[in-house]
C-alpha cells in the first residue's frame, strides 16, 4: 500500500508487534535480555558466523524502551566460489531492554567485532554491556553528557538549548571531567566569548 | 637497543615512555590515516606492540539528523556518510524506504539500470581514490595522477547526470531526479573506450612493481576464519578467499541480469586486497558496458505514483491536482507505513546496510547504518601487533576506510 496521507494509528513503532509489510529481508527472532547471550551463542554454533551489525532503536514511551538489534549472516569460513556461498541466511535478533539503567550482556566473547558496535550503543543510547572489556564513549567526546540518539535528546529548539553544554576538552588522552587547560583552551574560550560579545577577563570584547 | 635519546622540551608526539617501549599518537591529522583516524601505538623500537584506535573525530550525527528530516530529505544527509561513494549510500537507503512503501517492484527498468550504472561508476571512482592515496602511502606518487584522471572523467559524468560532482542527490525514492542529459551517453562511451588502456597502464605501473610487492606481500594477513570473526566484508573479505558479494548473494536493482565475476584471492595480505580491488575495477566496467547497451531506448525514470513522485514542473501551473500534490510533497512529504527493514548493498568497501524503522510518520523513526568501513577498520587491532610502524600505514590503506562512514 503506497503512502496513504493519513497516519496509521494501529501498529506504530511504539507497538512491539507492529504490522510490517511482508518483506523477506531476514528471519526475525525476539529474545528476552536474560536469554540473549545463550541465543546468540546457539545461533553462532548453528552457522551464523558473521556478526554484521549491532544497532539500537529508542521506542520512547514503550516498555521496554529500547530494542537492541543484531544482524547475523550464516557464512562458512571457506567458500571460495560464488556458487558455494549461495544465498547465506540472515537473521535479525531483537532484544528489548529498558529500566532506568538499561543493561545487556556483551557479545564481544562471541564476536570480537562487537566491541565498537557495543561502545557506540553505549555512547549514543546509554545502554551498558556488562562484561565489555573497555566500555567507553567512541563517537562523542569522552566528557560528553547525555546520549544523543535517545529520542528525548532534542536536536534543536528550546529544549536543546537547555541541555548542558559540555566543557571544551581535547577528545583523547583526557579523562572525563578534566577542565580545559593551557594556552590553546584559553585562547579558544576567549574567541568564543568575543564571538558572543561577552566580556573576557582581560577586558577584550568590552563594548565601548 | 641503545638508551632512549635525551629529549629537549616536551615532544608533542610522545604520549608515554616506559622502559624500551614508547606510546606514540599517530594521527588524527597524519596523512596516511586516510582521514581522521588516531592510532595510539605502543612501540618497542619499530615494532608495534599494541594499537588502540580512536575514532569519532568526524562524527556529524547523521543518523540523528535523518530522524528529523522528511524521508526524501534524509537521503541528502545520508549521501554524505561515505563521501567516496555517495550514490551507493543513497541507493541503499532509498531501496530500504521503497521496500517499506511496498513499491520496490514498481521502479521503472530504466531507473534501475541507471542506478546500477552510477553505482558501478562510483565503485571505480572510489577504488581510484583508494589506489591513488594508497600509492602515495607507499611512495608511488605518480599513481595518484593516473587514477585521478579516470576519477575526474567519472565525476564529470556524475555532475552531468545529477548536477554535482560529489553529492548529486540524484537517486530519489521512486526512481531518479531526472533523465540522463543529452551528451551523457557519448561521454560514457568515450570513458568505456578509454578505460581498458588506463587499466593496462596502471597494472603495468603497479602490479609487478618490486617496491610495491615488497611493501605489500605478507603484510597484514587475515585468514578466512579471522575475516569472518571480525566481520570483514567486501574486497577485504574476498582477499581472504571468501567469495561473498551482496550483488551475487542477494541481488538488488537487477544485478542478476548482468554478467560479472567476483574476484577472490587466497593470500589474505595487503597485496591480495590490492589485486582484488584492481580486478573489481575491471568487473565494474564490464557491468557498466552491459548497462550502457540498455540505455538507448527511452523510458520512464520515476514511479507513476503521484503521492511519491513530484509532478513535472510544466504541469503545476496547469493542473490543480499537480499543484496540490506538489504542495503536499514539499510541505509535509509522504508517510511511510510502519515497519522495519534491513537492506544491504555491496559498496566499494563491503556490505553497506541500512536498518530503517518507520512508525507511519513522514520522517524516519530510526536509520541505522551498517558501516562496512568501521568493521573493516576494527580488524586493525588484530593485524597491527608484531608488525612495523611502516606496515601499519600499508594495513590502514589496504582496509580502505572512509571516515565519513566510520564516524557518521
In words, what does this structure look like?
The complex is a heterodimer of chains A (208) and B (408). With 208 residues, chain A is of the alpha/beta class. Chain A has two domains: 27-153, Beta Polymerase, domain 2 (2-Layer Sandwich), CATH 3.30.460.80; 167-202, no CATH class. In chain A, 23% of the residues lie in helices and 17% in strands. Chain A has five helices and six strands. Chain A has helices spanning 33-45, 82-85, 114-125, 158-162, 182-195; strands spanning 27-31, 50-58, 66-73, 90-97, 103-105, 128-130. Chain A has a four-stranded mixed β-sheet with strand order 1-4-3-2. A two-stranded parallel ribbon of chain A has the order 5-6. In chain A, strand 2 and strand 3 form a beta hairpin. The relative contact order of chain A is 0.11. Chain B is an alpha+beta fold. Chain B is built from 17 helices and nine strands. In chain B, strands 1-2-3-4 form a four-stranded antiparallel β-sheet, with no helix packed on it. In chain B, helix 2 runs antiparallel to helix 3 (86-101). Chain B is globular, with a radius of gyration of 23 Å. Classes of the chains: A alpha/beta (208), B alpha+beta (408). Chains A and B meet through strand 2 and helix 2 of A and helix 1, helix 3, helix 8, strand 7 and strand 8 of B.
Please outline what is shown here:
The complex is a heterodimer of chains A (208) and B (408). By secondary structure, chain A is α/β, with parallel strands linked by helices.
Keywords:
heterodimer, A: 208 residues, alpha/beta, Beta Polymerase, domain 2, 2 domains, four-stranded mixed sheet, two-stranded parallel sheet, 6 strands, 17% strand, elongated, B: 408 residues, alpha+beta, Cytochrome-c3 Hydrogenase, chain B, four-stranded antiparallel sheet, three-stranded antiparallel sheet, 47% helix, globular, disordered N terminus
Largest sheet of chain B: 4 strands, antiparallel
How many distinct beta strands of chain A? 6
Determine the N-to-C terminus distance of chain A: 65 Å
CATH class of the largest domain in chain A: Alpha Beta
Major beta-sheet overview of chain A: 4 strands, mixed
Strand content of chain A: 15-25%
CATH architecture of the largest domain in chain A: 2-Layer Sandwich
Q: Mean of the pLDDT scores of chain B?
A: 86
CATH fold-level name of the largest domain in chain A: Beta Polymerase, domain 2
**CATH-scheme architecture of one domain in chain B:** Orthogonal Bundle
Structural class of chain A: alpha/beta
Largest interface: which pair?
A-B, 61 and 73 residues
Amino acid at each position: 500500500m503506497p503512502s496513504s496521507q493519513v497516519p496509521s494509528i494501529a501498529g506504530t513503532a511504539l507497538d512491539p508487534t507492529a504490522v510490517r509489510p511482508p518483506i523477506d529481508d531476514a528471519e526475525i527472532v525476539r529474545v528476552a535480555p536474560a536469554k540473549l547471550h545463550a541465543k546468540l551463542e546457539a545461533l553462532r554454533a548453528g552457522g551464523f558466523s558473521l556478526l554484521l551489525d549491532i544497532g539500537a532503536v529508542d521506542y520512547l514511551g514503550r516498555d521496554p524502551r529500547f530494542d537492541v538489534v543484531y544482524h547475523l549472516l550464516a557464512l562458512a569460513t571457506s567458500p571460495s566460489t560464488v556458487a558455494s556461498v549461495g544465498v547465506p541466511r540472515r537473521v535479525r535478533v531483537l532484544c528489548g531492554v529498558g529500566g532506568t539503567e538499561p543493561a545487556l550482556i556483551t557479545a564481544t566473547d562471541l564476536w570480537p567485532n562487537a566491541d565498537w558496535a557495543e561502545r557506540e550503543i553505549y555512547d549514543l543510547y546509554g545502554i551498558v554491556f556488562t562484561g565489555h572489556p573497555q566500555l567507553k564513549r567512541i563517537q562523542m567526546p569522552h566528557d560528553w553528557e547525555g546520549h544523543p540518539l535517545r529520542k528525548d535528546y532534542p536536536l534543536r529548539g528550546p529544549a536543546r538549548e537547555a541541555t548542558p553544554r559540555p566543557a571544551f576538552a581535547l577528545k583523547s588522552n583526557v579523562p572525563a571531567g578534566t577542565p580545559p587547560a593551557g594556552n590553546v583552551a584559553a585562547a579558544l574560550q576567549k574567541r568564543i566569548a568575543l564571538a558572543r560579545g561577552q566580556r573576557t577577563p582581560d577586558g577584550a570584547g568590552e563594548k565601548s | 637497543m641503545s638508551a632512549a635519546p635525551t629529549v629537549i622540551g616536551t615532544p608533542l608526539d610522545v604520549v608515554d615512555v616506559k622502559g624500551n617501549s614508547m606510546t606514540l599518537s599517530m594521527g588524527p591529522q597524519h596523512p596516511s590515516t586516510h582521514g581522521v583516524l588516531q592510532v595510539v601505538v605502543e612501540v618497542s623500537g619499530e615494532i608495534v606492540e599494541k594499537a588502540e584506535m580512536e575514532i569519532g573525530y568526524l562524527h556529524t550525527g547523521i543518523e540523528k539528523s535523518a530522524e528529523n528530516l522528511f524521508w526524501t530529505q534524509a537521503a541528502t544527509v545520508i549521501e554524505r556518510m561515505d563521501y567516496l561513494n555517495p550514490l551507493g549510500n543513497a541507493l541503499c537507503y532509498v531501496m530500504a524506504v521503497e521496500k517499506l512503501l511496498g513499491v520496490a517492484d514498481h521502479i521503472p527498468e530504466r531507473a534501475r539500470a541507471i542506478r546500477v550504472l552510477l553505482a558501478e561508476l562510483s565503485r571505480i571512482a572510489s577504488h581510484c581514490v583508494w589506489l591513488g592515496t594508497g600509492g602515495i602511502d607507499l611512495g608511488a606518487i605518480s599513481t595518484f595522477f593516473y587514477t585521478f584522471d579516470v576519477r575526474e572523467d567519472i565525476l564529470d559524468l556524475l555532475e552531468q547526470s545529477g548536477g554535482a560532482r560529489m553529492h548529486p542527490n540524484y537517486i530519489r525514492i521512486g526512481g531518479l531526479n531526472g533523465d540522463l542529459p543529452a551528451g551523457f551517453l557519448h561521454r560514457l562511451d568515450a570513458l568505456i573506450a578509454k578505460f581498458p588502456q588506463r587499466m593496462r597502464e596502471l597494472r603495468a605501473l603497479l602490479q609487478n612493481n618490486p617496491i610495491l610487492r615488497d611493501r605489500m606481500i605478507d603484510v597484514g594477513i587475515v585468514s578466512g576464519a579471522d575475516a569472518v570473526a571480525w566481520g570483514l566484508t567486501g574486497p577485504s573479505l574476498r582477499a581472504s578467499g571468501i567469495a561473498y558479494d551482496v550483488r551475487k548473494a542477494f541481488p538488488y536493482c537487477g544485478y542478476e541480469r548482468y554478467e560479472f565475476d567476483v574476484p577472490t584471492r587466497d593470500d589474505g595480505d595487503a597485496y591480495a586486497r590490492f589485486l582484488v580491488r584492481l580486478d573489481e575495477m575491471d568487473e565494474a566496467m564490464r557491468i557498466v558496458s552491459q548497462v550502457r547497451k540498455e540505455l538507448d531506448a527511452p523510458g520512464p525514470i520515476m514511479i507513476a505514483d503521484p503521492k511519491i513522485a513530484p509532478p513535472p514542473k510544466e504541469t503545476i501551473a496547469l493542473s490543480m491536482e499537480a499543484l496540490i500534490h506538489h504542495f503536499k510533497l514539499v510541505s509535509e512529504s509522504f508517510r511511510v507505513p510502519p515497519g522495519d527493514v534491513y537492506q544491504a548493498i555491496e559498496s566499494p568497501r563491503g556490505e553497506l546496510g541500512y536498518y530503517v524503522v518507520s512508525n507511519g510518520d513522514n520522517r524516519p523513526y530510526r536509520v541505522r547504518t551498517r558501516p562496512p568501513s568501521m568493521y573493516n577498520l576494527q580488524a586493525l587491532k588484530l593485524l597491527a601487533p608484531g608488525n612495523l610502524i611502516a606496515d601499519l600505514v600499508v594495513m590502514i590503506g589496504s582496509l580502505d576506510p572512509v571516515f565519513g562512514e566510520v564516524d557518521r
